Hints:
The protein is of the alpha+beta class. 26% of the residues lie in helices and 16% in strands. The strands form three sheets. It has a six-stranded antiparallel beta sheet with strand order 3-4-6-7-10-9.
Amino acid sequence: MSYGGPQWPQGPHQPDGGSGHDPYGGQQQYGTGQPDGTPQGRPGYGYPQGQDQPAYGYPQGTGGPGYGYPHATSGPGYGYPHPQSPYGQQQPAPGHEPPFGGGQNDGTPDWSALAEASEARQRRKRWLIAGGGVLATAAIATLVAVAVVSSDEDGPATAGGATGSSAATVPGGAELPTGQTGPQPSFSSVAPPPPPNPMDFISTEAKDKAPLTPEGLFPGKKLTFGDRVYTKGATSSTTNCASAGKGGLGSVLESNGCTRVIRATYTRDGVAITVGVALFADQGKALKAKEGARGGVAPLAGSGVGDFCRATVCLRRSNSLGRYAYFTQAGFTDGRKVTQSDTVVFKTSDDLASFTFNQIYARGRAQASAAATAPAGGQ
């Protein structure tokens, strides 16, 4: 079933003699029936060509009575009467009225009647257009209503429907709640505590409980730092802090309460370096040991590394992080003195100091992360 616009009646045909339909009720055609104007065997309007049928116009002598100036020998006609007619102007005989039905008998069309007929056709056309639009709108509304009803019938049942369920069914048998009767999410008005600070765990002996070993601080056999690779030598761990220092550093460590020293040696391109990490009870003591440092950490030989930094000039540095103070001593493995132009020695000292700093801070970060994920009361 398809919908389209209403089919309007065709307007009056033009007077071309093609349709055979007279919009004014007659069956005759108006205009010329033949190219020369000769009617096709029936009464027409125009100049008749001598046929015996009566026509309207100027009769041709022998024709029957017509409208216009009657022939001198014809019977009574319509128009201006013959001078011999005692009746003056005649009325048309029944069946011979003018084509437009006016009350005039001089052959002039009734323009008022024509105007009324045209207006009636226009009114009828407007009514048909309006009626067609209403019908089309009603049809579309009906289709939409049917589609909505069909969709409602095919959709899931809701509360109060045929199934009596208060939840919509989804594929797989699950149900989606449609009401607000179920449990609702709740939010605590208490803000969660901030995550623990890694420095809190490496600043005091009381909270720094993670295992500490030479392999934990200096893992593996090699150290890759950027594009530079260092080979690890000997490592050691001692609670005799004085033995781990030289040139006065041992006494500084003991005077500030050092409890342990862990050392490791690395080599690269003829340069050897020993890193020593000393532990204290808290951050304050480690800072004092760093600021009062004299001498340096004792070089640690072994595991392929010979003695270095003995009776020569080496590069010594010190720093601290939390309860840890760390020291470095770097020099050439062949015993040469280190000068300001020996950038390779300075670069080695920078790399190992940065690596040690990162390793100490990683201890604090790991303990803080474990505390944040531990259940309440587990600490």
